[in-house]
Amino acid sequence: MKVGAGFLALWCLLAPASSPAVEKSPHEIYDALNALRVDASAAYPISPTNRIELRRGDAVISLEEGTLAFLQAMDGLVTGAVFSGRGHVLAMPRDPVEKQQMGRFLGAPVLDQVFVNGYLRFTDDTARELLNQFHSAGVVQQPGLAIASQWDVTLGQLNPLHSLRILLNLLSPALAPAFYAGLDGASTGPFDVILDYGREEPFLLGQYKKGGDKPSYDVWTSHPIPGSPPHVPDFRALFYSLETSIFPNNSLDGSALVRLRAETGKERVLSFQLSRALTVDRVTGDHGEPLEFFQNEGMSLQERSARGNDYMYVVLPSVPALHQEFALRFHYRGNVIEDAGNGVLFVGAHESWYPHLGDASDFASYEMTIRWPRRLRLAATGTKTDEHEDGEFRVGHWKTETPISVAGFNLGDYASSSIASASRSIEVFANRQLEENLKNRMASSGTDVIPIPLTPIGALPNASVAPPLPNPSPADALKQLGKEIDASIRFYETFSGPFPFHSLSVSQIPGTFGQGWPGLLYVSTYSFLNAQAQQRAGLNATGQEHFTELVPYHEVAHQWWGNVVAWSSYRDQWIDEAIANYLALLFADTKKNPDHTLHVWLSRYRRQLVEKPPGATEPAGEIGALSLGVRLDSSKSPSGYEQVVYSKGSWIIHMLREMLRQPGAKNPDARFTALLQNLRVKYAYRALSTDDLRHEVEAVMTPGMDLEGGHSMEWFFEEWVRGTGVPHYRVEYSTHHTESGYMIRGKIFQTEVSRSFIASVPLYASSATGRVFLGNVVAAGPETMFHFTSRDPLHKIIIDPQMTLLCTTD
Ligand SMILES: [Zn+2]
After folding, report:
1. How far apart are alpha carbons 709 and 411 in whole angstroms?
2. Rounded to the nearest 5°, which phi and psi values hold at 310?
3. What is the mean pLDDT of residues 679-698?
4. In angstroms, what is the span from residue 639 Cα to ligand 1's centroid?
5. Structure confidence at residue 461 as a pLDDT band (50, 70, 90)
6. DSSP-derived secondary structure for 231-249
7. Of 753, 795, 800, 754, which is closest to residue 777 (Cα–Cα)?
8. C-alpha dihedral (32, 35, 40, 45), degrees to nearest 10
9. CA-CA distance, 588 to 290, in Å (whole number)?
10. Ligand 1: distance of its center to the CA of 581 in Å?
11. Which pLDDT value is given to residue 444?
């Protein structure tokens, strides 16, 4: 029988390393995979009486009517098929976080969609499974010239996005298989169904979206599949030696030696992050032998959006033994430094300017040698051991004293100022000039911002014609900023333990961007400007506070939270952001600003979470769970991550602090501080997960926090980290005078959150003698009764006047 022949041929799918497929070079296989077209002799007509169905993860894909044709086999291996006709897909994730996202993107927590075309690629046994079903249903193979020509051009475009993933399975037999379906949804448009056991979360439904300011990839759901094996990295980088030359035209020429260790002994392909702006000339192994590599080829959109960076693959000649150490050498060149105008430079690919393996929780030691044009100054991660002139260049060496997860540099026509103490030195670098963009904004600022006069109006020769203001230099702010940063370090040390590095370089970067790297901060130009200059640049009062009071100190706090205690999964990234931002709020609060900075910021954040901004489909608090991390950014909320993580994250840390607080004690924050110090010691140089954080909170929790019993904080993380929405509270009550005083009976109404939401809500009474604390009511569900007694008659019940709980009230 014809079907039988195909059946047999497919047994050698995912052939072992000795098969013909691997005798070709990786690039030859890759090119052959790209060139695959429909096998015109292997088409199968499907009618509504047949039931052809693939179950992959949470999805059921049914082919109802039309034609399915396999792609040509490669060395006996079938890795794809196309379908033209009508099909149906049904998928229903179980996890509430994922359901909420499905609802947000699809209007219902389930994907229930008719599709008209399908493109399938796989390294699992999809081909055999389909052939079995055709055989059982009596579907007989027919020539398929029409479907072959219909798909010819499309395959030329689609194949390159998938060939690399298929190649990985061909090169590494131990790598778990993958399945991909690109379906053309009748109402959704094209979308992806992925079940790839090589991914940490194997199942994904999502869609590439154009439009808006930038194209984005909307992840409808991404999650593990019950029983899927834990994800273990196959390689670990132990040491990097980076030699980099920066030329007067800002181009870069680099060589990197990376010492690695095989962690599983099952894989021979390594993937490194590296900017696509850098072209790799060669990669060599331990003995100088050239290795095959793939750069910027076959990068699927899902992959890129998940990793956030460009990457390259290096293929080892064979699978290294378990725990074998070896080195790779890379040579690359290109342009990652842009000129922001007026002589100000911007290191664009500051995280992918060298080949980097692993994520933010993979720590390694580094040695760096950098050569750069003599007229510029350069700051870098690590401890500088030497700097000298060499003709038209300067050459510097840096070395790490503690492991770091990423290395970087920044450069410019800098002025600098330094502060040194016995334990550390701080050097602040700022450009002498403003970047072009900002300079222009200042020049045109008179039209939309009222400038603050430099001198009293009356002193000007002609009050109606204001003289042009001189452009400020970011360098003016150096000394003051250095002092403040030093003060913030001392403040953070009381919460987080000793500053983790011997030196800190604070460097200016054009634009509104900021980042805190190990021993190196990138801080926006705006943070170097005084209030008057910020105003001329168009910043409103909140924007000024943001750049002056928060940004630099938020980045300082990342020295502990991010650069010592790290995160691995995108689902845990919020923790370091939240702690860093909350500590920055506490530091701002120490300046005793009459506006009570902490509460001002918390109420701003609360407003951001509950009020729908113009043009948005929902308030930030409804976008999605904090544990979605970067997935909060999508076509529906391009800056969702920023809107949710800083505001809700800061509130979460604030609520934990308030619950742990001991008012009246010598140090009311002793428990909160113990929590942070414990995290800092226990999770140093590794990832802290949301579950780890919950465990550590449970270790210090008070009886008042045990709302569900069982000494568990699960309720808190369920509601605030994995839930959406902000509760609203309202009370109704009546008072009776009795012999022992006043009896207050009432109800607290909880809305805007799920019925299972619980919270401990502090109630106060205002009376003739002032404000009295009545007690906490555990609001469980929409309506909860309470009663209190009071000696004095009360005017009014006030809900949480001290802002200890993220909520709104009437
Ligand atoms: Zn941050």
Report:
1. 55
2. -75, 160
3. 98
4. 14
5. very low
6. P--SEEEEEEEEEEEE-TT
7. 800
8. 100
9. 54
10. 7
11. 65
